[in-house]
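Let's practice the habit of predicting before peeking. Look at the sequence and jot down your guess about where helices and strands might fall. Then scroll down.
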Amino acid sequence: MGRSLVVALLLAVAAGAHAQWWNPSDPTPPKFRGTQFETKPVYDRRLFEAASLQVHAALEEGNFAKVDRMYGEFLASRQRTSDGSWLVEAVQQAIDNWFVAHDDSRIDRLFAEWKAKAPDSKLMPVAEADRWQRTAWKARAGRGAGSMTPEIRELFRERMLKASRALEASAEVGRESPIWYWVALIVAGSSGRPEAQFDALFEEAVARFPTYQPLYLTRLNYYLPQWGGDFDKVDAFIQRSVQRTEAVDGKAFYAWLYLDVARKSGGDEEFFRVTRVSWPRMRESFDDMTRRYPDVWNKILFATFACLARDRETTARLLTQMPAEVHLGAYTQGISTDACRRFALDRS
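Done guessing? Here is the structure:
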């Protein structure tokens, strides 16, 4: 084989790794897709959201070949976006949101069609496990354990059992995917599995997928006070998680995990008083995160929590580095862009 042909093949393979065949907003002319002339995509938060929307639309259309191909490519590449998310999480998000949006009869039709059109799908059995845990929580409708009626409690238990069985049936292929482990952790935690079993499952999951954030967020959930834990346990888990991920993500997991604590505990000024979070450590973590993953979303979160912590200097620095149209306030209460600008920049 001639040198020029070898080089051409290598260029084609490299270009194919960046293919956005699934993205209607890809600016590459169709004739150049899959070639060295293809536009190299920017894997940012917007592309993540575009991928999630495309999976959702493909489910609506019954285009399971597209869903399976996107899943397979994102999983194989382990591509991460500029905010630190794994691109395959866009598939997880889309499927889970689809189950939230539709009733049981529509979901039944989806799986009947999926099984008929793509019986060998590797994603379908994982999605089926997610279907049962998600609809279990839908049936519960936000009720705490003490406020469930006997009927809701039984329905919740039955659907969690179906999710567990679906996980067992798909375990061989499922363990190739962080989404399978994400569902398995939700089912284990929601079903009250012994802590040793829960932790063993978590350890197996993060050994295979050490920087997949949803695995950590799910385990963290069951350390929170509302699930029988406390903020000392939360902080100890976050410290261990930073140590585990430091070789790849530096100190970023400290902020990522405490952002989730804020989201689940109200995100008001009490966050820095009632939890064990340290703002100097969180600020250091954000600094590291935004160097490694400079997506504007991460900078918005940094500025939001600097403002919540009443760190005038950091808030001012970040606001002057970002576009004027950004919106602060994610995962918090009482924080807005205008209020933070007045706090940090108004010297009158």
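How did you do? Residues 4-18 have pLDDT under 50 and may be disordered.
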